[in-house]
Each structure stands twice: as C-alpha cells, then as structure tokens.
Write a structure and sequence with these properties.
Elements (H helix, E strand, L loop, with lengths): L5 H5 L9 H6 L4 H9 L1 H12 L10 E5 L2 E4 L4 E2 L1 H5 L1 H8 L3 E6 L5 E5 H17 L7 E5 L4 H12 L3 E4 L6 H11 L3 E5 L1 E4 L2 E4 L1 H8 L8 E5 L13 E3 H6 L10 E2 L3 E7 L7 E6 L1 H14 L8 E4 L6 H13 L3 E5 L10 H9 L3 E4 L1 H10 L2 H4 L8 E5 L5 H11 L6 E4 L33 E4 L11 E6 L9 E2 L3 H9 L3 H4 L3 E9 L5 E6 L3 E4 L2 E4 H9 L4 E11 L3 E10 L1 H4 L4 H15 L8 E4 L13 H8 L15 H9 L1
Parallel strand pairs: 4-17, 6-7, 6-8, 8-11, 11-12, 16-17, 16-18, 18-19, 19-20, 29-30
Antiparallel strand pairs: 1-2, 3-13, 4-5, 9-10, 14-15, 15-23, 21-22, 22-24, 24-25, 26-27, 28-29
Helix pairs in contact: 3-4, 4-12, 7-8, 9-10, 12-13, 15-17
Bound molecules: adenosine-5'-monophosphate-propyl ester.
InterPro entries: Ac_CoA_lig, ACAS_N, AMP-bd_C, AMP-bd_C_sf, AMP-binding_CS, AMP-dep_synth/lig_dom, ANL_N_sf
Enzyme class: ligase
Catalytic activity: acetate + ATP + CoA = acetyl-CoA + AMP + diphosphate
C-alpha cells in the first residue's frame, strides 16, 4: 500500500473535527450511534421502515437460527424498483432530476424521476414479453449509460436477478459468468465511448455465446456506439425498438424481502470468480441508510456523483440503489477522467454543481501527480462532502483531496466495505466524527467489527490482526451462487471453532488507542489494482492456459499509482522458449491475459524465469516473489525446497 505502512500511519497526527456549520445541518448525529448501541436490531428495523416503502410490513427483523444463512425482514414484502422510482413520483418529486448523464463525446441528457419510472416500466414489460420472470437471471454488459440503470431496475422490478458484468471484461470472462448464472437474457450495447473511441461490446457477447448450447434465448442491444454489429436473427433485438412498442404502464408487484436481487462476480483466492448473491429488503435498507448518513445526503438540494462503474459493487450500491432509493439527483458519466482533457471530471463538477463526490484513492493519486493547476482551473466550490473507497487512502492523498478538491473544508469519509458486505461497514460520519487521514475509522451504527488474532481472541492496540464482522448485517451476502460450501468455508469457518460464527473479511487491520480502525490490505491471495479486485490464481491460470507457458506465479507488488500492480513470474516450456525473444514472449502473454480476463488484469511486468521458489510440499512462496518485485531484501528462505532458487531469480532480473 502506498506509504500506508503501519509505522507511517501510527505517526499520523492530523485531526479534522467537524465544523459547527456542518454539524448544525448534518443528517447524522451521535443519536444514531446511541440508538444502535441500545438496540441494534431495533435500529435496523427503524431504518428499514423509515427509509423504504414496504408493501407488507415485517414482523421479525433478523432470523439467524441457521447461521451463516441469514434472513432479514423475512415476512416483509417489498419491490426494490418501486422504492427507487414510483414512490418518489407519487410523493410529488417526479420532476426532480434523477440522472444528469454526461456522455464522453460531450452529449448529455437529464432524466427526471418521472421519466426514469416510465422507462423502467417499459423495459419491465419488454423483459416479461421475452419470457423473463421472477428468479430468472439476466446478464447486463453495458457502458455507463442511463440504460444500464434502467436495465438493472427493470430486472429488479419483475423480481428477476441481474448479473452485471463490467464492460472491460473479455468475452471469456463474460462466457463463464453467463454460464455460471445460467442467464436467459443478455442486455448489451453495440459499443460505448472510452478514451475518445468507440469500444465494441456486442461482439464480445457474440463471442461468448458462439458455438455452444447456451441458456441465453435473447440478446437486447442498446444503440450507443453506432458501430457496425453482427446480428443473429430471432435472438437479437434492438432495445429502442422493443421499448418503443412496449406499454408504459406496469404495476410493481411485491416480492419477499429475501427475493434475490443480484449476483455479482468477484475474485477470490481460487481461479474461479465467485457469484456473490444479494437479496432485496436488507440490502436496500443498508445501502439507503449508509448513503444518507455517510454522505450527509439532502436529496432536495444535493447533487451527488459516484464515479464507479455499475459493473462493480460500488456502482450497484452507490450509483443505482442507494441514491435512487433516497431520491437523490446524481451525475452519471460514461468515459474516462482525462478525455478529452485532464480536467474533465472537474468540468463536470462545475457544470452540475456537484456537492457530494465519491471516488477511489487511485484516481486521487493520479490527479495529485498531474498537479493542482488542473482542478484549480475549475469552480469546485459546490463540493461539501468527499468520499473514498476501494483501497486504503494514504494520508497525503487524503489531505490533498480535502485541500485541493474540497477547498480545505469538505470532510473526507474513507469508507471500507466489500462486494460481499453490499454496503459501507466502516466510515466516519460527516458532522459527527473527528476525521483522521488514513483511517477508515469506526463501524457505522448497527455494525459490529472486531480485530482478531490467529487464535480468535481480540487483538489489543497497537497490534494488527484480522478483520471480522461479528454480527450479521442487513446487506450481507446471502451466499455464493450455486456453491453453499464455498460460502461457508471462505467466510465463516475461519473462526468458527474459536469464537463462533463470524464473517472473515480477508483484510488485515489495526485499531489505535481511540478505537479507530486502520486497514492494512488483504491477507489472502487477492490483489487490489486501482481499487479493483483480482486474484493471483485467476491470472496464473490465464497465463498457464497459453501454449508456451509451463508454470506461472503472480503477485501484487506495491505501486505508487495503482496501489498494487500485477507482476508475473513465468517459466516457459523448454521447446517453446526458443521460438521467440523474451520481449516477444512477454508481449504475447500480456495480451493473452487481457483477452482471457480483461485489460484490467494485464500484468504490468512479466519476468521469464527458470525456477519458482517452492516449499518442500510444492507450494509457491509468493511472499518471496513479492520481495523481489518490490525490490526488498528477500525474507526467510529456509522453508524452500531449493534455497538457491531466489538467488537465480534475482540474478536473472538484474
Ligand atoms: O481489501 C479491501 C479493499 O477492497 C476489498 C473489497 O474489494 P471489492 O469487493 O472489489 O469492493 C471494493 C469496493 C467496496 C476489501 O477487502 N477496500 C475497500 N475499501 C477500502 C479497502 N481497503 C481499505 N480501505 C478502504 N476504504
């Protein structure tokens, strides 16, 4: 992690108490901590009832009789899309803008809640006409355009389950996710805009569905890039044509609170991504509650912008469900931060008067590198709350963010959470918390976090340990799609015998004397590249699937800009090794990984080596490779089967 070593963090002395002005208008207050501390379940029941509309009220808040399978608000009935749309229109807010959409080439659209509701109703009718019903899976592979939001809400509205696949993933990744979820329908676009060009999407869907029997019956195609696409008659349909002829009326049906809402694939410690399952009532409760309290949302006056893509959990919870459940006005931007100029994000903030801004440390660090002159050229005075997510934010980036983007006054909330947790779990609350740069601070009201040692006992400051969530929470994952055993083993078995059923997050953390939590990065083989999760095993299996590769080991090496970077060590098959130069082999393998997984997984560096460091039982010692990749003195090699290997590898890299 960039400069987030425990030593540098422990010396971080800067403190930022809330201003009186901010506190006097803040949504959050000490009272919600007190309420949750007195009656945790009562607090969540209250949030569920005050923030959402229930078609049928629930009588039991939590059923934890069969851990780790939780049920929240189980006998309640709810429609997620109705909560995000119709009720705002019925409350007289139909004319409020839901989405200010900004296309990368400069086109834009502002869509009100009334308009968005009609679009979703039409899309829901299209889905029904294509035979999609409650529980069916729909894959969504779209750029950041309003149709992505419409598609997700239309699926939710009819009780079906979406699985959104980030547009940067390859055809191969798309195929494995469509297969795993047995999706009946794919919603895609011809292409989208990125870095000044149209990137094709429909072709990847065609590739994913080609030459094999698939559960997919239809492909709905949004027209955006206007690039040429192949067409499979009978299977493919244009979104705009279908929507134009669909009925604009659709009554939202109430579904059980535990009706599945979506599956989102994320990387774990094995080569196969996990389909994280989230359900309806509990998920919507916690995303709405955290969105309101953590960002101090005043829906009638704020303009909110979260820069995440809807293909990630941050996009699900804090672009789609949280903001829309709260009736917020938000910005949605299609493209990259530096197209067509490096001030594009700041220009958008100025144009729409964005007041709440939520992004990732990797973006902040890249802006720091370009220099303050760029943001200083725009009027950013509308900003009043700033958020950070995805990886630890180093104190220097935190302070820069507050000073240069937030005018030296905007509170910065560092929010820790995961695909699995569904919503924010640890964060300060603006107007209440005295902020500390570099620390994610405290569990939000109603959440119980502990830091445990290997033996399952609580670790006292200043020691580090493993982060666990000790009590179930409303937006918790309900399972791994199709794999209850992996769900149990991955998250719940770690401390079971030692201290009961607790959720093991996979992160290391440390608590300071004030009780503030400092995240120290993953303790497993999951990497964090620019806030995106990738597994070492997934990239290793992509590398060994290439005909020239005999063996591969991948590590995440500390990187100034991206937090971590993918570094691979590869042994070539001896017959193949001579057929190309090392540079050619490296170039070939880098693009192979991009084709297999997606450009985000492309290794920054590949070293061709003759040996890999292994223990006597044959386990690759990635820790030692990480030492090499980070240019550190190599650690303890005594458990290696052959202790000379590290010397050979280091010599080779000189
Ligand atoms: O290691 C933690 C890191 O990101 C992981 C979760 O990744 P993902 O499921 O892709 O979700 C990212 C967006 C919620 C965590 O296990 N992480 C996320 N936020 C933070 C963080 N690490 C430190 N500080 C954060 N604020």
């Amino acid at each position: 992690m960039p400069s987030n070593s425990i030593d540098s963090l422990l010396h971080e002395e800067r403190r930022f108490p809330p201003s009186e002005n901010f506190t006097s208008q803040a949504i959050a207050s000490q009272a919600i901590y007190d309420e949750a501390a007195t009656d945790r379940l009562g607090f969540w029941a209250n949030q569920a009832r005050t923030l959402l509309h229930w078609h049928k009220d629930f009588s039991e808040t939590l059923d934890w009789s069969n851990p780790p399978f939780a049920k929240w608000f189980a006998d309640g009935k709810i429609n997620v899309a109705y909560n995000c749309l119709d009720r705002h229109v019925q409350a007289g807010n139909g004319d409020r803008v839901a989405i200010h959409w900004e296309g990368e080439p400069g086109d834009s659209r502002s869509i009100t809640y009334a308009e968005l509701t009609v679009e979703v109703k039409r899309a829901a009718n299209v889905l029904l006409s294509l035979g999609i019903g409650q529980g069916d899976r729909v894959a969504i592979y779209l750029p950041m355009i309003p149709e992505a939001v419409v598609a997700m809400l239309a699926v939710a509205r009819i009780g079906a389950v979406h699985t959104v696949i980030f547009g940067g993933f390859s055809s191969e990744s798309l195929r494995s996710r469509i297969d795993d979820a047995s999706a009946k329908l794919v919603i895609t676009a011809d292409g989208g805009w990125r870095k000044g060009k149209v990137f094709p999407l429909k072709g990847a869907v065609d590739g994913a569905l080609a030459g094999k029997k698939s559960t997919v019956g239809n492909v709905l195609v949004v027209r955006r890039g206007e690039n040429v696409v192949d067409w499979v008659d009978g299977r493919d349909r244009w979104w705009h044509e279908e929507l134009a002829s669909a009925d604009a009326e659709h009554e939202a049906e109430a579904f059980e609170a535990e009706n599945p809402l979506f599956i989102l694939y994320t990387s774990g410690t094995t080569g196969k991504p996990k389909g994280i399952l989230h359900t309806s009532g509990g998920y919507l409760t916690q995303v709405a509650s955290t969105h309101k309290n953590v960002f101090d949302l005043h829906p009638e006056s704020d303009v909110y912008w979260c820069t995440a893509d809807v293909g990630w959990i941050t996009g699900h919870s804090y672009v789609v469900y949280g903001p829309l459940a709260n009736g917020a006005t938000q910005v949605l931007y299609e493209g990259t931060p530096d197209t067509p100029h490096p001030g594009r994000w700041w220009e958008i903030i100025q144009k729409y008067g964005v007041s709440i801004f939520y992004t990732a440390p990797t973006a902040i660090r890249s802006f720091m590198k370009i220099g303050r002159e760029v943001p200083n050229g725009f009027d950013l005075t509308s900003l009043r709350v700033l958020g950070s997510v995805g990886e630890p934010i180093n104190p220097e980036a935190w302070v820069w963010y507050r000073d240069i983007i937030g005018g030296g006054t905007a509170p910065v909330v560092d929010t820790w959470w995961q695909t699995e947790t569904g919503a924010i779990m640890i964060s300060g609350l603006p107007g209440v918390t005295t902020l500390k740069p570099g620390s994610a601070q405290v569990p939000i009201p109603g959440i119980k976090i502990d830091i445990l040692g290997e033996d399952g006992t609580r670790v006292d400051p200043p020691n580090g340990g493993l982060l666990v969530v000790s009590e179930p929470w409303p937006s918790m994952l309900r399972g791994i799609w199709g794999d209850p055993e992996r769900f149990q083993e991955t998250y719940w078995d770690r401390f079971k015998a030692l201290s009961g059923t607790k959720y093991f997050a996979g992160d290391g953390a440390h608590v300071d004397a004030d009780g503030d939590i400092w995240l120290l990065g993953r303790v497993d083989d999951v990497m964090n590249i620019s806030g995106h999760r990738l597994s070492t095993a997934e990239i290793e299996s992509a590398l060994v699937s290439h005909r020239i590769v005999a063996e591969a080991a991948v590590v995440g090496a500390a990187d100034e800009a991206t937090g971590q970077a993918v570094v691979a060590f590869v042994i070539l098959k001896s017959k193949q090794a001579k057929k190309q130069t090392t540079d050619e082999a490296v170039a070939m393998l880098r693009s192979h990984v991009a084709e297999q997984i997606g450009a985000i997984a492309r290794p920054k560096q590949i070293f061709i080596v003759n040996e890999l460091p292994k223990t006597r039982s044959g386990k690759i010692m990635r820790r030692l490779l990480q030492d090499v990749a980070e240019g550190r003195e190599i650690g303890d090699t005594t458990t290696l089967a052959d202790t000379s290997v590290m010397q050979i590898i280091t010599d080779k890299m000189k």
